[in-house]
Write a structure and sequence with these properties.
Length: 166
């Protein structure tokens, strides 16, 4: 493996763009195959070993190799032996997960929730925003009444809040 080949600009750019995205999509029990198809540094005659994803944490992924050994893969690595891609079957699951809104997203910051749970949280946030807008509008209206000036900041502010449709 030549140092010049491992740091080839096109190769580094491709790996830098692709590997973090692949790592973001990986979930426990996904199957991966070591090496990247088309990587000029991947030996054409070498057997591409498969592994099962155990865990993913930011740019690190723990896997169990076919022979039972465990390895930690880093999405920032340029070593062709540490690069990977999904097996055909796992890739189909990844696509399904990314398209089906009812599939649990284990990388979601609301871990273990389904899309409907996130939608409920978004609805609660919207209701909170409405409450804040209504409260500010009422405060502006009260201040405007106390100032008795039609063109005061508070009067204009209250009029603008009435115009918001939440």
């Amino acid at each position: 493996m030549s140092e010049a080949g491992i740091y080839d600009n096109e190769r580094v750019s491709h790996i830098r763009d692709m590997m973090p995205k692949v790592m973001d999509l990986a979930q426990p029990n996904d199957r991966i195959v070591m090496g990247l198809t088309g990587d000029p540094l991947l030996s054409k005659s070498a057997r591409r070993h498969e592994a099962t994803v155990l865990s993913v944490d930011k740019h690190l992924m723990n896997v169990r190799m076919e022979d039972g050994t465990k390895r930690t893969l880093d999405s920032t690595s340029l070593n062709p032996e540490n690069l990977f891609e999904f097996t055909e079957d796992s890739f189909k699951d990844v696509i399904r997960r990314s398209v089906d809104p009812n599939v649990v997203d284990h990388n979601n910051k609301y871990r273990g929730t389904q899309v409907s749970d996130v939608a409920n949280l978004q609805k609660e946030l919207r209701e909170f925003q409405e409450s804040v807008v209504n409260t500010m509008g009422e405060m502006a209206k009260d201040i405007s009444k106390m100032s008795n000036q039609r063109d005061s900041f508070s009067a204009i502010f209250a009029k603008e809040y009435r115009g918001l449709n939440y």
